[in-house]
Write a structure and sequence with these properties.
It contains 17 helices and 14 strands. By secondary structure, the protein is α/β, with parallel strands linked by helices. The chain folds into two domains: 234 residues, P-loop containing nucleotide triphosphate hydrolases (Rossmann fold), CATH 3.40.50; 163 residues, P-loop containing nucleotide triphosphate hydrolases (Rossmann fold, 3-Layer(aba) Sandwich), CATH 3.40.50.300. It starts with 48 loop residues before the first helix and ends in a 19-residue tail after the last helix.
Length: 475
């Protein structure tokens, strides 16, 4: 039996009414059943020894606040509503719970028993790679279901059986409609970055998935912000959830500095080039794909190792560009919002908004690329005179009080804040992130899984690994 018959909860004692006003957040629910207390150590959670061993090998010694608070309850089967900015430790907060509660189960073909929904391909890859060592330890199979990758490969992985599916809504909907995946056996569902999925228009699709999963299942919802769209999901699908907020004020992260730099239009491009020439990596957010490509051309010509990341790139190109950025082959990543959601790069200490974000939620998600997991970081926004008033309103909504400075290219203050320096002026060339296409040397269906043998070397396998191809990092 599925959950389509579940009605919206109207228990006034467990929920405050949403706050009026665009962009405002609703009050988080108050659990009618007391939450279990937070733990100080992973050893206190009763996790399978295999998971504890992987944590120890990877040097994960103590849980982050969101893990310490939510894991006792999620492991006990409670629904969880967690508000935490990117980098707060959400992936292990829900991942360990899913793995522990799924361990020992075996999925039938096309019928996963756990589902993790995320807004973007990059975040799906990141989650898969973060959880793969733990999943392998408890003999669970992971399948990543995202767009930009041939449907057939993903369908074959599901057909062989995968206990946990990490998916973006669009591709999963496609597979479900083709009857290549069924959700009626899913007992644990995770919605990661639920606010972003809602903002991207996926709320009806996500609602449809939640209506198909097993009745009485567990739902874990994590979001950086809690607006009306997320409230709809909470009211309908979460049963007396335990709530936990890492950041009472969404923008208040003690390890993150916020700067607004007032620039003149005539000096903006030079200022950008100086910042991009810093000694260290930087993500620069820009509004349009065309603008990203044009800026990268300019930066390369001035001597900056730059590359663009946006929705106009194929998934293999985006993956390779991220690898180049992580390895240092690319120092300045010029990205649009959609393409950069879910990017996780360790040690990134500077994010620059070349164009002010569309709203306070976009600002928080952009800034979430830095100051992750307790590291320090700086978020800088370049603001033209006609943008100042709107930017001030946005930061007030986000609960952020930035340091405001008027700068020009070459200023000492610009260097102090961002590490800016004069570009070399010597053009550089970054190899195009072209992924070799598999050569179809035999008709489809000739080998074991119905694909050319060359494709098998680069496919993503059910446990999240990359076959025999070489790949550095995490996604």
């Amino acid at each position: 039996m599925n959950r389509s018959s579940r009605l919206p909860r109207q228990n006034a004692g467990s929920r405050s009414a949403p706050v009026d006003g665009a962009g405002r957040e609703f009050a988080v629910p108050v659990s009618t059943v007391p939450a279990l207390p937070a733990v100080e150590s992973f050893d206190d959670l009763g996790l399978p020894q295999e998971l504890l061993s992987v944590l120890a090998r990877r040097g994960v010694t103590a849980p982050f606040p969101i893990q310490a608070a939510t894991l006792p309850n999620s492991l006990a089967g409670r629904d969880v509503l967690g508000r935490g900015r990117t980098g707060s430790g959400k992936t292990l907060a829900f991942g360990l719970a899913v793995l522990a509660r799924t361990a020992g189960r075996q999925a039938e073909p096309r019928r996963p028993v756990a589902l993790v929904l995320v807004p973007t391909r990059e975040l799906a890859q990141q989650v898969t790679e973060a959880l793969t060592p733990y999943a392998q330890a408890v003999r669970l199979r992971l399948a990543t279901v995202v767009g930009g990758v041939p449907v057939r490969r993903q369908a074959e992985v599901l057909n062989r059986g995968a206990e946990i599916v990490v998916a973006t809504p669009g591709r999963l909907k496609d597979l479900v409609e083709r009857r290549l995946c069924r959700l009626d056996a899913v007992g644990v569902t995770v919605l990661d970055e639920a606010d972003q999925m809602a903002d991207m228009g996926f709320l009806p699709t996500v609602t449809g998935f939640l209506e198909q999963v097993a009745e009485g299942g567990q739902t874990l919802l994590f979001s950086a912000t809690l607006d009306r769209n997320v409230d709809r999901l909470v009211r309908r699908f979460l049963k007396d959830p335990v709530t936990h907020a890492v950041d009472p004020s969404a923008g208040a992260v003690c390890t993150m500095e916020h700067h607004v730099l007032h620039v003149q239009n005539s000096d903006k491009h030079a200022t950008i080039a100086h910042i991009a020439s810093r000694d260290g990596r930087v993500i620069m957010f820009i509004d349009t794909k065309h603008g990203a490509d044009r800026l990268v051309e300019t930066l390369l010509a001035s001597g900056v190792k730059a590359a663009a990341l946006h929705g106009g790139k194929s998934q293999p190109q985006r993956t390779r560009t991220l690898e180049q950025f992580r390895s240092g082959q690319v120092a300045a990543l010029v990205a649009t919002d959609v393409a950069a959601r879910g990017i996780h790069v360790d040690g990134l200490d500077l994010v620059v908004n070349l164009d002010p974000p569309g709203d306070h939620k976009d600002y928080l998600h952009r800034g979430g690329r830095t100051a992750r997991a307790g590291e320090s970081g700086t978020v800088v926004t370049l603001v033209l005179p006609n943008q100042r008033r709107g930017m001030n309103r946005m930061l007030t909504t986000a609960g952020i009080t930035p340091v405001t400075t008027k700068v020009r290219a070459g200023d000492e203050e610009l260097t102090r804040i961002t590490g800016a320096r004069v570009p070399t002026g010597v053009p550089v060339v970054i190899p195009d992130p072209v992924v070799e296409r598999p050569r179809h040397s035999r008709p489809v269906g000739r080998n074991r899984y119905g694909r050319p043998a060359s494709a098998a070397r680069t496919r993503q396998t059910a446990d999240g690994s990359r076959g025999t191809s070489s790949r550095s990092h995490n996604g």
